[in-house]
Structure prediction request, 632 residues.
Amino acid sequence: MLIRLRNIYKIYGEGLESEVRALNGVSIGIDYGEFVAIAGASGSGKSTMMNVLGCLDVPTYGEYYLAGEDVSEMNDKQLSHIRNKQIGFIFQGYNLIPALTAQENVELPLVYQGVGAAARRQMALEALERVGLADRAKHHPSEMSGGQQQRVAIARAIATRPPIIMADEPTGALDSKTGLEVLAFLQQFNREGSTILLITHDNGIAATARRIVRLSDGKIVEDHEQEVDWL
Amino acid sequence: MKLNQAFKMAAKSILAKKGRSFLTMLGIIIGIASVMTIVSVVSGSNRKMVEYYESMGTNRVEVSGYFYSGASMFDQLYDYCQSLGSVVVGITPNAQFYDGTVRYGAKNSETMEWEQRPQVYYGSDQYSLCNNFQIARGRDISRFDIEEYNLICVMGARAAKVFFDYADPLGQDISINGLPFKVVGVYAEKDPDRSYSLDNVIVLPYSVSRFISQGSQMNEYVIKVRDAKSINEVITRVGDYINTITQNQTIGSGNVYSNNQWIDSENDSMKMMSLVLGGIAGISLLVGGIGIMNIMLVTVTERTREIGIRRAIGAERSSIVAQFLVEAAMICGIGGLIGIGMGYLFTNMAGKLLLEGYSLLPSVPITAGAFGFSVILGIVFGLYPAIKASGLQPVVALRAE
Prediction:
């Protein structure tokens, strides 16, 4: 089992009258090579779940095992290493650094891995090649369309060849055609062996995943496998 | 993350915001330039003063004294100093003769520009010793010249140049108030930038004063003392002796002092001045540093999202701290270098304008200190925002707009 959550709670303002339980006792297991869509309306806790799964945030209570290791016991340095080596993130708002070129953005996780400049450049260009943007390597994000920026973000996510890719509403800011391109990339990475977690509020997009987990009010209300629309 | 990566990132981010980076540096630039200039000018003018006193000779006790009758005190002082033994190294009259007209060929001191006109002194065979002159050519005044009333003179380097230009002055006769004086020696130059015309002198054996200036009194003397420790002793004893021979200043007048005291008080007041001025300049440097901290805080707030992105893709806290720290240190370092450049420029200009072309350059310790201080400022004032920025949960930082 790659990911195992046991009774995860994320509670804001605990004990106060305004207490919010973004995750209210979530338990789930996700195996290697799965493509899981985490669906739910806004406020259902799906983004919080991705933040916890992606080690971007720490749960208030509960246990989180990643590849058998207890994440809740880890310090900041170890969590940084997990984010760096095990997980590739794709965000709704692309989250590229505006001052850096496409290539430099893609190289950034490799910089934090301590990869040498020449190897870094080669890996970044390979990743950009895979998303069809090798010719835009020297462009800044501001010189690219939304779809192109999201593809740069995808290249950044796969540059370190992480076993897990997490995408938080990756099509949210894109038109439907470029959105489908992004989803097609995710399916392709899944076929190649990556574990994909796709967070979305859109059932049509969730339909691209083999397994769908639906959240409501911080609890899992639905979890089943489905036929996939291959793109 | 390696440090050179932090440097590259910092350089990129500084270059991306040139205008703001420069404004941030401005405080440091002005601070360092002013600290350097002020400290250099103060210490330079101090050094210049000390050099002046030292070129006159150190460990000198100056005596000014005469009898109301017009008689000279020198022979009595000379004998008394002999009796003091080895604490006294030499004694000479140091009397300037103001009414001398010096002529050689067509050159006439009366018609010369003020700064060309030589100063004529009466001295003993110990004049050069007491006044820190060295014979460059020929010979010095001898005891024999004084006893025999020889009409000879020794010229300072500048005076020799004024009268003889490139010709050889040795053996030539110059005329002083109509009497021919043979030039027997030339002193080595000791005041090359000519700020005090110490070299524009003509020294005569004091005994010849009876031929050319019968009426003028010789009342300035210099006693060269063995070392600085003996100065006070000599001042006291010679002062007592003068009181004795003037019958407590009733038949004559005299007092004794040392220019070591001037050097000391000069040094003291300069130290005080550089402390006060340096303090003011230091405050401006501090204000510049606080400006840097403000800018770093704003930068960090603005770039919280970027920090979130970097954290999300695997940057450790320490990498973020390193990045911002290096950026702050770099801004201060570059500002420091520019400040040092301007400090050199201003110091040079100040030397030309305020100290009559005295070539003034900031010392290496001042320069190194200024640079080190600016980088430390950057590190100190960059640390707080950097730690603040890195402490955020990645998700919190990512949410920032």
